[in-house]
Amino acid sequence: MSNAADLPGVLLSAPDALFLMRRVVTQALTLIPEGEVAGIELAHGEVLTCVCSSGSPQYGVGTQLPLNGSLSGLALRTGATLACNDTAVDERVDKEACRGVDLVSIVCVPLRRGPEVVGVLKLSSSRTYAFDAQAVALLSSLAAFISDAIAGWADLARSATAVLAIDRRTNDRLIGLNSMTPNRREETEATEQFVANVLRPGAVDDRDARRQIEAILAGPGLSMLFQPIIDLKTDRLAGCEALARFADQPMRPPELWFAEAQRVGLGAELQLAAAHKALAQLPQLPPGAYMSINVGPDVAGSPALLRLLHSVDSQRVVIELTEHMQVEDYPALISAVHSIRAAGARLAIDDTGAGYASFSSILRLAPDLIKLDRILTTGIDVDPARQALAGALVNFAAQTGASVIAEGMETSAELDVIRQLGVGYGQGYFLGRPGPVTRLTSQTRDPAATPPCPAG
């Protein structure tokens, strides 16, 4: 059985009552789009306190209302869903408080814990008569579900804490694993894994995956190989692409390691570790050759990458933007590209021809290098459609000042057509296999390269 010593931390980060309440208020605004603000207020003594909210920042966490003299308090005391169409004329509300945060229409839904009403879900708007009878009835019908969900998570959190004997102030178990007998340690680990997988399916797998990625980051499990990029006019080395390789089990393609690191929150760290290892070998490249390193949109604008670029001869570096992750914020990425270029590096867009995303990035980011994906170049010698698309991209690049690199060259026939189309640079097993940086030379293409091989 694997060591479960860090599962308490996993459990404490699992969804709890407050997390669920935040989701409730967010989804309430989606369900009732007329609402501008949603919050949950819980009773304590003679006041109701807002413990989470979504919408206007004026009505924030910590806002307090009296039980007497507020619509929230009345809903709590009566246990009925109440609506106000205009707080300026409704005697049930605290007019001054509502005016201060621009609440004009309000719906208050009581939340129960067993027979006791303990708080309210409140939706509000700055407009009069914002909520019709259908919206009020819909919210009222969900009150029991919301109450049970929040109370259930609160009970689960307490039960998990008791079972695992976790001190929430220190995140340490009250009884250390090191002081236990082997049998007792195994029982404790089994208990933790059971509770973790009930509260958060996959928690144990995520924990183990994260630990494995952390071991790779700390040890020798990550190495770099370098595949030559050839100038097709001179047959000489123009540059190389740094490719990560992993020694750990299970044996699987590098992209799956990066995807798993991304899933457990270590994607940026693994990308930067690969970039560090690659650029440490930049001085060993033949004079005039550049090195291309792969990063995703999340790392492209990071201060860590910029510091790394400033620590090397960045004019010999190409940042190859991979699009295995969706670009969430193009303005931010465009700003990151400006910073990369200001540091002296160039930009390449990878996987062009494999999907819409790469074309969108070409238009928005104006890369220095456009890399034709192997899906476009494989079999291009016998496919007029691939030839037409590749030719169009070559013409586009010529108009925008970019250079084109054809990836996946595996036969002399493919290479001949690529040359005829005017593609300036090539990369692939036919031109050179990935290998140590010391194998790269400024001479003609790698003599160890062989005809068609499966992609690695």
Topology diagram in text:
Elements: H1 7-12, H2 17-31, E1 37-44, E2 47-54, E3 64-66, H3 71-78, E4 82-84, H4 95-100, E5 105-113, E6 116-125, H5 133-141, H6 143-164, E7 166-167, E8 172-173, H7 182-199, H8 203-218, E9 222-231, E10 236-246, H9 254-263, H10 267-279, E11 290-295, H11 297-300, H12 303-310, E12 317-321, H13 330-342, E13 346-352, H14 356-365, E14 369-372, H15 374-377, H16 384-400, E15 403-406, H17 412-420, E16 425-426
Parallel strand pairs: 10-11, 11-12, 12-13, 13-14, 14-15, 15-16
Antiparallel strand pairs: 1-2, 1-6, 2-3, 4-5, 5-6, 7-8, 9-10, 9-16
Helix pairs in contact: 2-6, 6-7, 8-9, 9-10
Q: What is the alpha-carbon Rg in Å? A: 30 Å
Task: Give the CATH topology of the largest domain.
Answer: TIM Barrel
Average pLDDT for all residues: 82
User: How is the main sheet built?
Assistant: 8 strands, mixed, barrel
Termini separation: 34 Å
Strand content: 15-25%
Per CATH, which architecture of the largest domain? Alpha-Beta Barrel
CATH class of the largest domain: Alpha Beta
For the largest sheet, list the strands in their spatial order.
Answer: 9-10-11-12-13-14-15-16
Number of helices: 17
Structural class: alpha/beta
Number of domains: 2
Poorly predicted regions: 1-15, 166-178, 450-456
Global outline: elongated
CATH superfamily of the largest domain: EAL domain
Can you give the helix content as a percent range? 40-55%
